[in-house]
Amino acid sequence: MTEPRQRLLIDVRELSELTGIAVGSLYHMVSQHRIPCVKLSQRCLRFSLPVIREWLASLSEPASDRRK
């Protein structure tokens, strides 16, 4: 298999492997429009790595400083 970072689009199985999110959960997130995806056809779903990286970064929260 070609390394995912060398390609622009990956499938749901590869995204699951990269993120640790179950395939079923990813499909559920797509159906709720909670994750960006590329629908090439009714049954062909792909994810853009650059867009997914941005999306994940937007979900990240900074660590809090508990000493304050």
- Largest beta sheet: strand ordering: 1-3-2
Q: Structural class, please?
A: alpha+beta
What is the H-and-E element order?
Answer: EHHEEH
- Strand fraction: 15-25%
Task: Estimate the helix proportion, in percent.
Answer: 40-55%
Total helical segments: 3
Number of β-strand runs:
3
**Overall pLDDT:** 89
* Major sheet attributes: 3 strands, antiparallel
Shape: elongated
Question: Which spans have pLDDT < 50 for at least 5 consecutive residues?
Answer: none
If you compute it from the alpha carbons, what radius of gyration comes out, rounded to the nearest whole angstrom? 14 Å
Terminal Cα span: 48 Å
Detailed description of the structure:
The structure is a single chain. The chain is α+β, with helices and mostly antiparallel strands and 68 residues long. The chain is 41% helix and 16% strand. It is built from 3 helices and 3 strands. The chain has a 3-stranded antiparallel sheet with strand order 1-3-2. A hairpin with a 2-residue loop joins strand 2 (38-41) and strand 3 (44-48). The chain is elongated and about 50 Å long. 6% of the residues are buried. The mean pLDDT is 89.
Attribute tags:
three-stranded antiparallel beta sheet, 3 strands, single chain, 68 residues, elongated, alpha+beta
Note the topology.
Blueprint: E1 9-10, H1 12-19, H2 23-31, E2 38-41, E3 44-48, H3 49-59
Antiparallel strand pairs: 1-3, 2-3
